[in-house]
Amino acid sequence: MKKDDQHIREINNVAKDKTPQAQPNNPLHGVKLAAIVEFLHKKYGWEELDRRMKMNCFAVNPSVKSTLKFLRKTEWAREKIERLYLRSID
Question: Which in 33, 76, 87, 90 has the greatest CB count within 10 A?
Fold first, then answer.
């Protein structure tokens, strides 16, 4: 019985470690990448995003799905898109 209790405590500790921390100074906290891409697409359109960002994901057969795939693999591009988003919501 003690081993079962210990196992449950270990599972609870792991779950606590994975709980998202509050980030009051991070304006992107809780904003999904898909929501960012959809917002920017509605605001600017693919052509304007390509002109501003110079990324093929906006120039060659652009779609939300393909853009998300690229941004999730390419950190520099995601950071650039997040900066544009932050400038756009102000």
Answer: 33
Say which DSSP state 74 is in. -
Q: Which amino acid is at 28?
A: L
User: In this structure, how many other beta carbons lie within 10 angstroms of the beta carbon of residue 88?
Assistant: 12
What domains are defined for the chain? 32-90 (1.10.720.30)
Tokens of 89: 């919501």
Question: What is the spatial distance between Cα 19 and Cα 71, in angstroms, rounded to a whole number?
Answer: 24
Closest CA to 67 of 88, 89, 83, 45: 45
User: What tens digit of pLDDT does each residue of 7-56 get?
Assistant: 556 655 554 555 556 677 788 888 899 999 999 999 999 999 999 999 99
> Locate tokens 């917002």: which residue?
39
| Mean pLDDT across 67-78 | 95
- The gap from C-alpha 52 to its chain's centroid, in whole angstroms, comes to 19
